[in-house]
Known about the structure:
49 residues, single chain
Amino acid sequence: MIRIAEAPFDPAAELAAFCAGRTDVGGIAVFVGRVRDHDGREPILAMTL
């Protein structure tokens, strides 16, 4: 699941909701970060995951 959001959120609450009632979930990796609006020279126009 990939979601891009502008509003603040609670990563622990998101993980709890994702795992709630499930027994098929194994390892989970989470990246929480920000995308800069420039790379020092050029504006950032897109982000690829």
